[in-house]
C-alpha cells in the first residue's frame, strides 16, 4: 500500500509500505481522509521522543471498513487505544488509562491507504457526511473535552463568562466554536499568524486578534483555553485570567516556563491540564459536526496524501492559511 512516512526530522516520504496485519478483534479500514495534527508536526521536527522514524503518523482519520463485523461501514477512528479494564477506563476516563496507546505513535498511523485498529475504536459516520469534515472529530473532541473540564470548575455558567482561546489551529478554532455553541458571547480568539487570522475572520463570526500587536488586558477573562501551550502563551494566560478564573492547558508546544506560581496561588487561579478525550466526547463531537452546530467548516483545506510532504513544509513555514489540512487518499 501507499503511505506517507516520517523517515527523518523534517522529512516525509510517500512510498510503498507493507499492508497492515490485523490482530484478533481488529478491523481493517481503508482510509479516506486524515488530518495533520500539531503532534504530527512535533514529530516531524524531532520534538517527540515517542515517535521514532520510520513511522506512519496520522490519527485524525475517517475511512470505510474493509474487514470486520460491518464491512462497507463508514467510520471515524478513535485513535486512543486503552485496556478497557482499569478503574480509569471503567470510570469513563479512558484518556488516563496507564496502558493507553495512540495510532501514529508507537504503532502505525493513518497517513496510509489502510490501517488495522481494534474494532471497538470505530465510530459510525452518517453515510451522507463529508469525510474531510468528519476527520475533524478527533481535534473537535479534544476541544470539547477541554471546554467541559473548564466548565466544571467555573463558579458561574460558562455562557456568562468572558472567554479567550489562544491559537487558531483546528483545536483552538473548534474550541471557540464549541464555546459559541454553548452560548458564550464574550469570546475572543488570539492568533499570531496573519493568514490564519484572515481565515477565521472570513469563515466565522468569531472576534480574532493578534496578541503581539494588541496584547490582551490583564485580569480580563474568566476562562482561558490555551491551544498552543508555549512559554509565551502560558505567560499571557496567567496574566490575562481574572482572580478565581480558570486556565485550561491543551497545547504542548514546549515544556518551558511561563507559570507565575505566586499569582496562581494568591489569586486562586485554577490551572487544568487537558489530554485528549473520552469515547463519548468523540461521539458528541461527531454529532455536532454533522448537525452544523459548529458552523459550515469551510475553513479546512484538502490535499492529496501524495502531496503530504509539501503540506508539512507549508505548515512549518507558516504558509498555510487553513487551521486544518486534511489529506485525501
Could you give a short description of this structure?
The protein has 329 residues and is α/β, with parallel strands linked by helices. Helices cover 28% and strands 28% of the residues. The chain has 10 helices and 18 strands.
What does this structure look like?
- By secondary structure, the protein is an alpha/beta fold.
- It has two domains: 2-136 and 297-328, Quinone Oxidoreductase, Chain A, domain 1 (Alpha-Beta Complex), CATH 3.90.180.10; 140-273, Rossmann fold.
- 28% of the residues lie in helices and 28% in strands.
- The protein has helices at residues 38-44, 87-90, 131-134, 137-153, 170-181, 194-203, 231-240, 261-266, 279-291, 308-316; strands at 2-8, 11-16, 26-35, 55-56, 60-67, 74-77, 80-81, 101-102, 114-118, 122-124, 162-166, 186-190, 207-209, 221-226, 241-249, 270-273, 300-304, 324-328.
- Strands 3, 5, 6, 9, 10, 17 and 18 form a seven-stranded mixed beta sheet that branches. The protein has a six-stranded parallel beta sheet with strand order 13-12-11-14-15-16, with helices on both faces. A three-stranded antiparallel beta sheet has the order 2-1-4, covered by helices on one side.
- A hairpin with a 6-residue loop joins β5 (60-67) and β6 (74-77).
- α4 crosses α5 and α4 crosses α9.
- The mean pLDDT is 97.
